[in-house]
Model the fold of this input.
Amino acid sequence: MNASSPDHAFAPRRWDHVPLYRWWRESVVGSVDQEKVVGRIVEESGCSPRYLFMTMMSAGIAVLGLLLSSPAVVIGAMLISPLMSPILGLGFSLALFDFAEMRRSLSALAIGAGAALLFTAFIVLVSPLKAPTAEILARTRPNLFDLLVALFAALAGTFAIIRGKGETIVGVAIATALMPPLAVVGFGLATWNMPILGGALALFVTNFVTIASRR
Done:
């Protein structure tokens, strides 16, 4: 069925009698300046010196919090993590089939994740603390609740970015799902502990895919 057929053109109208759908289409989707939202995402989703520096600092603080088994320090690391921007860029590029932006966002994510991984591994190598703590082990056994954290963070992020409100707070939630597992991967690499490395990597990949696919 082509895009010009009456059935396709008026398909959304079939749901207009549903109050929740009508509210979503008119009050949420209809009030969004789509061009402005996409422009802001594209502007912030690339790799830059600031992005790399802040990602490495967040990873460094996160791995120190994990080594000290301090949830407060780990949460503090999330306040400065800039991972949300390229993930948003990737998600919107998938939705819009914008392959140039997709490559740009993926490059920023790969470079940022690689820098964070190497930096955390270096910190662990020079640190006298190399024993797995409870905070580290908690990131090596992915479960349904971890997936739900990533899913809810992704949904909140999508809503926040289209409304232009709360991006910082949602960015913390997204970083909570991604940065600690990535730091644990660095720990596993530095200590050559394959079970920890594999478990944390599985959690990171699962959360990343969940977050990116919900855009």
